[in-house]
Amino acid sequence: MKTSSTRPRYRPYTPDNFHTLPQLDKISPKRIEDMKLTFRVLPFRVSNYVVDELIDWDRVPEDPVFQLTFPQPEMIPRVDFCRLRTFVRAGNERAASDIVRRIHRGMNPHPAGQMDLNVPFLGSEVLTGMQHKYDETVLFFPTQGQTCHSYCTYCFRWPQFVGLDTAFRFACSDETLLPRYITEHPEVTDVLFTGGDPLVMHAKLLRKYLSPLLEKKPGNLHSIRFGTKSLAYWPYRFTEDKDADDIIRLFEEITEAGYHLSVMAHFSHDRELSTPAVEKAMARIRSTGAQIRCQAPLIRHVNDDPGVWSAMWKRQVALGAVPYYMFMERDTGPRGYFNVPLVEAHRIFTEAYRNVSGLCRTVRGPSMSAGPGKILMDGVAEVGGEQVILLKFIQARNPDWVNRIFFAAHNPKAHWIDDLKPAFGKQQFFYEAEYIRIQENIRRRREGFAAA
Ligand SMILES: *Cc1c(COP(=O)(O)O)cnc(C)c1O
Ligand code: SF4
Predict the structure, then answer these.
(1) How far is the CA of 115 from the centre of ligand 2 (A)?
(2) Where in the sequence is N6-(pyridoxal phosphate)lysine found (predicted)?
(3) Which is it for strands 46-47 and 12-13: parallel, antiparallel or unpaired?
(4) Which of 258, 124, 264 is CA-nearest to residue 193?
(5) Which of 131, 134, 294 to mutate to test the pocket of ligand 1 (most atoms within 8 A of CB)?
(6) Which of 321, 328, 351, 401 lies 20 to 30 A from 101 at CA?
(7) How do 137-140 and 130-134 pair as beta strands?
(8) Closest listed ligand to the CA of 197
(9) 137 CB near ligand 1 (under 6 Å)
(10) 351-355 — which CB contacts under 8 Å span 24+ positions?
(11) CA dihedral 384, 389, 394, 400 (to 10 degrees)
(12) 227 touches ligand 2 (CB under 6 Å)
């Protein structure tokens, strides 16, 4: 760990300046060549803080934080990777980009067509850059918050980071829409600013998005949340950056206005909670009256170990934060590399959960953010002689489904709700017919607007 008296300055490493990484002498030339090939397929950006203070370079490539931030050659199907190498070595750039395109297609850049179903309306105006799926909470994607200080190798936004999706397609830069929408929707109590990472934005810009809410104060709005990975990837955001004081002041204004402010911090490994920089940043955020809640997906090679999760939850509580969600990894990108099956995920969760006090047990998971809702994998049991998987909605498109238990046939290989079949020989899960109707209704309403 380094300490330095000068103000730390954010410096990202990307494929363009990768060769300037001082720690490259820890990696074999062969692996460096393979990593460069990998950058043609998968996005790469890592901050100097992650490189200098988080990664244990003596343990590379297995090091979990290295796996978290450096795309690995093994993430790409072997045959495709070898072809790519052959073409690049031969200088055949055209064939190389064809292979890259093919690999991208195999990675399924549009899981479930989710985005479209959740885009809300104001009158007949489509509010791209917002999502409203669960009654209480509106998601807002500010245009300038659609990037991150470093990229997670498992990020499902990888198509936008490699330019396959126009980065701002789902983003919004009109700050007046949010208070209008919230005022017209009395069921909304929470707004969640998300991205990317909205806290990469300059404090001035963030203030532009928050000011209308702070001025208008819609009576139904209780909580403002920021989804962020900045505490893990650039904690100096809250302490040393030029606008750090400004952002802290903005947090204070939010809590002084009577809102509950929650920083939804993405922490993937307990090492991210171990540096003096993150401790200081968390204390500073907490001093504004904001709460910090922590969540992350369960990822093979990064945190598929109960010890990592229990250490993480304990550190979070020690630092005044609240463990919140353990997610299942979405079915996209190099998923074969990261996937942990549901049954194993539940075992990891349970072994970690057993070893922590009740103060850590605010955490819920493993949870799948699927089309119909957030579905909790709640265990394995034998019911009427059949081995079943217990599932439960902890968030749902129809509130009537919330907290309802249902059963799937046991399947040790299943990663996702789509891999599961209902137990007891049933044809469908209880919500499926209604979910299809809900989707049809949304589409019909949308087409109605389009025709009007
Ligand atoms: C998870 C999620 C939320 C927030 O749910 P909480 O359980 O209140 O944290 C809101 N909208 C979407 C689309 C989500 O996936
Ligand atoms: S912090 Fe979130 S949005 Fe950013 S790269 Fe990681 S998973 Fe993706």
Answers:
(1) 17
(2) 374
(3) antiparallel
(4) 264
(5) 134
(6) 328
(7) antiparallel
(8) 2
(9) yes
(10) 351/306, 351/310, 352/306, 352/307, 352/308, 352/309, 352/310, 352/313, 353/310, 355/306, 355/310
(11) -40
(12) no
Q: Are 319 and 282 in contact (CB under 8 A)?
A: yes
DSSP helix/strand/coil, 301: coil
Residue of 46, 153, 197, 299 with the most ligand 2 atoms within 8 Å of its CB, for mutation? 197
Residue nearest to atom 6 of ligand 2 (CA): 152
Q: What is the pLDDT of residues 197-244, one digit of tens each?
A: 999 999 999 999 999 999 999 999 999 999 999 999 999 999 999 999
**What ligand has the least distance to the C-alpha of 265?**
2
Longest Cα–Cα distance of the chain, Å, equals 66
Angle of CA points 185, 197, 373, to nearest 5°:
50
Find the ligand nearest to 223 CA. Answer: 1
pLDDT at 166 (0 to 100): 57
**Tokens of residue 136, six digits:** 């209480």
